[in-house]
Design goal:
It is a single chain. Helix content is 23%, strand content 20%. The protein contains 6 helices and 10 strands, in the order αβαβββββββααααββ. The strands form 3 sheets. It has a 4-stranded antiparallel beta sheet. A 4-stranded antiparallel beta sheet has the order 2-3-4-8, covered by helices on one side. Strands 9-10 form a two-stranded antiparallel ribbon. Helix 5 packs across helix 6. The longest helix is centred in the last third of the chain and has 20 residues. The chain is globular. It starts with a helix and ends in a 6-residue tail after the last strand. The mean pLDDT is 91.
Length: 285
């Protein structure tokens, strides 16, 4: 499933085609994705101008000129593509068409670009709500701070984990603690910080917790710079794959030598909470 860096990469790719531009015509090819589309969804998008495109955790938020927010979650295989022809240097890049069988939402922009949402497994979903209701929406009302935002700082991090008896990995994946972190980047950050994924969250010393805090931000920033990670279906809006999978230190590296200098450990794998954990038992404690 695309995680925060992948969704942020998609947001940055879509922004030149959407922000400040008007949707000439929206079309849905079926009644639902993971959930049914909102009532009159295509008609309510048609004619609207996109004033801003933001990301909250793993959601894309398009703020429209009528006071509504169009929400998109990519699910497991959802992908936005921009189709058309480049008109001049500096224009956004365009992708090759995807399999039309799995194209479920199409936007025709006034400037001529065509945006398609393709989702073979249909685990993605969309909603359209009033901006005034955003914070109270079930998707967001209990969500923690953004890990790259100003509200995610060391005093908050210490307080959020204080007394927690759950594992540090489970705590970081809890969207109420911090928003948008997923399995890949949690195990990568824990390895950089030298903390085992099974370590009790409330028993991590302050100095080690600060190292983890900086590791989380560094891993996410590096992954965004690399265009995210492509393991199966994820692609950027121009069709390019992400590149951070080539920088994994532990994720999917079972049996490989640990990348920590002078460690000489070997990466192991176990399943925690239904998800694969990868770590080095020698340098992660």
């Amino acid at each position: 499933m695309p995680e925060l860096p992948e969704v942020e990469t998609v947001r940055r790719g879509l922004a030149p085609a959407l922000v400040g531009r008007r949707i000439k015509r929206a079309q849905t090819k079926r009644a639902d994705l993971r959930f049914p589309f909102p009532a009159r969804f295509a008609a309510r998008l048609s004619g609207r101008r996109v004033d801003a495109l933001e990301r909250r955790a793993k959601y894309l938020l398009a703020h429209l000129d009528d006071g509504n927010v169009w929400i998109t979650h990519l699910g497991m295989t959802g992908r936005w593509s921009i189709l058309g022809a480049k008109r001049q240097p500096g224009d956004f890049y365009y992708a090759e068409p995807t399999n039309p069988t799995h194209t479920h939402v199409v936007l025709e922009m006034e400037e001529g670009a065509r945006l398609e949402f393709n989702d073979p497994r249909r685990f993605g979903y969309m909603d359209l709500i009033a901006e005034s209701e955003l914070e109270a929406h079930p998707f967001f009302k209990a969500m923690g701070p953004e890990p790259l935002g100003n509200h995610f700082h060391m005093p908050y991090f210490k307080k959020a984990l204080a007394g927690k008896k759950t594992s540090i990995k489970a705590a970081l994946l809890d969207q109420r603690v911090v928003a948008g972190l997923g399995n890949i980047y949690v195990v990568e950050a824990l390895h950089r910080a030298g903390i085992a994924p099974t370590k009790e969250a409330g028993r991590i010393a302050a100095q080690r917790l600060e190292k983890l805090y900086h590791a989380i931000r560094a891993v996410l920033e590096e992954a965004i710079e690399a265009g995210g990670s492509t393991l199966s279906d994820y692609a950027q809006v121009d069709g390019a794959q992400g590149g951070f999978q080539h920088r994994f230190r532990v994720y999917d590296q079972e049996g490989e030598a640990c990348a920590t200098p002078n460690c000489n450990g070997v990466i192991v794998r176990a399943t925690h909470g239904g998800r694969s954990s990868f770590w080095c038992p020698k340098c992660q404690r």
